[in-house]
Amino acid sequence: MFKYLSSIATIITLALTTTGCQILVDNRVAGKTPVVVVPASDWDKMREAEMRSSIERDIADAEPVVRPPIIPIEGSNLIQFSNRTDSNLAGCSTIGILEVIHKGTMDEALIVLRNEAYRLNTNVLVPYAMEQEETDDIVFAKIQIEARMMKCPLQLPQGT
Question: Do the domain assignments include residue 43?
């Protein structure tokens, strides 16, 4: 019985004393580089500085990509933007919803929106959602525009 209790006491003591230990697996060649232990906050700062210098070097080495210009389709400039109330009063019918996601400028996103609306035979767009993510000097803005496509009669009926 004493042997049994001493075994349990030894296991518990060993478990309690080793739970706070960390194991270091050292794959270095002996004598080549020292082991340096730093706090996590310092490690994050060192890693961030290393990554920043690497990114800056990669950006400096990269050649800028020339994007082709976005050209409006002939006739797409006739597509009008309106609100839903005025469009319904004018006798317009809803065709569907058009969503455009574009990386670039807002003007380019509107040209893409109008080109797609023209391609889908729409003459009025009613925008109801527009979102732009933050921009910086390197990456173009991600612009998302959602608009209701409406087809309106070419001429409104005139009363007498």
Answer: no
Question: Helix, strand or coil for residue 65?
Answer: coil
Q: What is the pTM of this model?
A: 0.56
Which residue matches tokens 């109008």?
114
Confirm whether 9 is domain-assigned.
no
DSSP 131: E
Bridging pattern class, strands 80-81 and 124-132: parallel
Alpha-carbon gap, residue 95 to 15, rounded angstroms: 71
User: Are 121 and 112 spatial neighbours (Cβ–Cβ below 8 Å)?
Assistant: no
Q: Which two tokens stand for residue 160?
A: 């007498």
Range of the structural domain that residue 109 is part of = 76-151
CATH (domain of 134): 3.30.110.70
Structure tokens at 100: 């455009």
Residue found by looking up tokens 């950006």 in the block: 59
Of 67, 83, 155, 69, nearest to 115 by C-alpha is 69
Residue 133 makes CB contacts below 8 A (sequence gap 6+) with: 141, 142, 143
Express each pLDDT in 10-59 by its tens digit.
Answer: 988 887 777 766 666 666 666 667 777 778 888 888 888 888 888 888 77
